[in-house]
Design brief:
80% helix; elongated
Length: 124
């Protein structure tokens, strides 16, 4: 069973990621770029890595892994979109990919955060 402070930290990390997404929705920046380049998400991923050892072997470990994977896969899709964008013909595909990835990020934050209070592990 993880310490209560670590559960609170997981809430804070979801909140930091959500703040980045909200910034992307309320500004000209896209959700994806705000999520990956915004200081809240960068701080959140750093916190995930720093505290990951303390949640190892608990249901909370799945949340930390979920948050980390969300960040890195979003970065991967951003990079793939950048390669597509570099080719003139790939620009529409890049925009669609970035938009879809932004929705995926939003889904993962909501799903993870909603599972947290019920102490449910997330799929690995």
């Amino acid at each position: 069973m993880p310490r209560e402070g670590l559960v609170t930290l997981a809430h804070v990390i979801y909140g930091l990621h959500a703040f980045s997404v909200l910034t992307g929705m309320l500004s000209p920046a896209m959700i994806l770029t705000a999520f990956l380049t915004g200081w809240p998400s960068i701080i959140a991923v750093i916190l995930n890595y720093v505290k990951r050892g303390e949640v190892r072997g608990t249901w909370l470990d799945s949340h930390f892994s979920w948050q980390i994977r969300t960040f890195w896969f979003a970065l991967l899709w951003l990079a793939i979109g950048a390669v597509l964008f570099a080719t003139v013909i790939g620009i529409p595909f890049a925009v669609v990919l970035w938009f879809a990835t932004g929705i995926w990020v939003l889904y993962r934050i909501i799903r993870g955060w909603l599972a947290l209070p019920s102490q449910k592990a997330l799929p690995q």
